[in-house]
Amino acid sequence: MNYTRDLIIRSMVRKRITAVGDMVCDILCSPVSHLDDADVQLELDGLNISPGGNTLNFALAASAFGADVIFHGGRGEDPLGTFLARWMERSGVGDHSRKIGGLHTATTISIPTLSGERRLLTYPGANSRFEITPDQIDLDWTAHLHMGGFWFMKGLAGAPTSEILKECRRRDIQTSMDPASPPFEGRGKMVERLTDALPYLDILFVNEYEIARITGKRDIFKGASMLIDRGVGTVVVHRGETGSSLISGDGRIDLGSYMVLVPRNPTGCGDVFNGCFVAALLEGRSGEEAAEFGMAAAALHMASAEPLYPTRSMVMERVKRGK
């Protein structure tokens, strides 16, 4: 299956990824058995503060797997922004983030349940004012450009995103996007805000909820077909316990998930999958192999009470153990 329009061969000798998009400080609550009605106070067993945002998580995961990564995003002039910058430095991610005056660093509070579901509260903060143009990105260095957090990046959503992706296509640079969970709007309306960018995307990452919200199709495969008809090369659907599906004009591959006995940290699992998937593609792996690595990495992340971006050796060991 041609996952990336024959760009794998041209880019696999350069594992260099530029990630452009959201950076968030995540406040991760320990899982609760259920969410009660209003004014009922629940006691937590633990709390973690960690990097978050679709794009920053992607960058950290790809770097942990062995890719060279540069990150562009916006942060506040506050301790949370400094916290994220230092985490990137320790992780080997090239930090090209910019301080945005007058706004705090974006923050998300994640409340997961023991079943692996979650509720999210997000303050977009500096993400909403971050802007960048193609000439501000080192595209000569870049083999793959990933964009994320589309709905909350008001300075990038629409024409700015399309211009960056269009320039990548002109230069034969692989592209991918994880637009993230869309805000609550009428079913099927969201795809129009992505339309101009779709023809320049080799890979679009979504989960089952997101693809339904974006396309208005309850059937994820019909939704994927709509996106492919509008120009996307491959749609990769995260399907939770079911696994993942890779869908392109050449067909479809479904892969089962890796068992996690106790789901401790569902927040960021999709981003970790994405980072490992792209890093593996740039090694010359097939889409199916890359998805296996991505799911193994996501399972390791899900099972960890602490923030975890699995290394290559950790992922390979998890794959060997089987599902």
Question: How many structural domains does the protein architecture include?
Answer: 1
| Strand runs, count | 15
Amount of helix: 25-40%
Low-pLDDT residue spans: 1-12
H/E element string? Answer: HEEEHEEHEEEEEHEHEHHEEEHHH
Radius of gyration: 18 Å
> What amount of the residues lies in strands?
15-25%
Instruction: Give average pLDDT, whole number.
Output: 90
Strand order of the largest sheet: 6-4-1-10-11-12-13-14-15
The quaternary structure here is: single chain
SS-based structural class?
alpha/beta
Q: Mind summarizing the main beta sheet?
A: 9 strands, mixed
Q: What is the CATH domain class?
A: Alpha Beta
Question: What is the H level of CATH, i.e. the homologous superfamily?
Answer: Ribokinase
Characteristics:
disordered N terminus, UDP-N-acetylmuramoyl-L-alanine:D-glutamate ligase, alpha/beta, globular, 323 residues, 15 strands, 9-stranded mixed sheet
Can you walk me through this structure?
The protein has a 9-stranded mixed sheet, sandwiched between helices. Strands 3-2-8-9 form a 4-stranded mixed sheet. The longest helix is centred in the last third of the chain and has 17 residues, at 287-303. The chain has 10 helices and 15 strands. It is of the alpha/beta class and 323 residues long. The two termini are 24 Å apart. It has helices at 8-11, 54-65, 79-91, 159-170, 191-194, 208-215, 220-229, 269-281, 287-303, 312-321, and strands at residues 16-21, 24-29, 47-52, 68-72, 74-75, 94-95, 98-99, 107-112, 118-123, 144-148, 174-178, 203-207, 234-238, 244-248, 251-255. β14 (244-248) and β15 form a beta hairpin. It is globular, with a radius of gyration of 18 Å. α2 (54-65) crosses α8 (269-281), α6 (208-215) packs across α7 and α9 packs across α10. It has one domain (8-33, 44-321): Ribokinase (UDP-N-acetylmuramoyl-L-alanine:D-glutamate ligase).
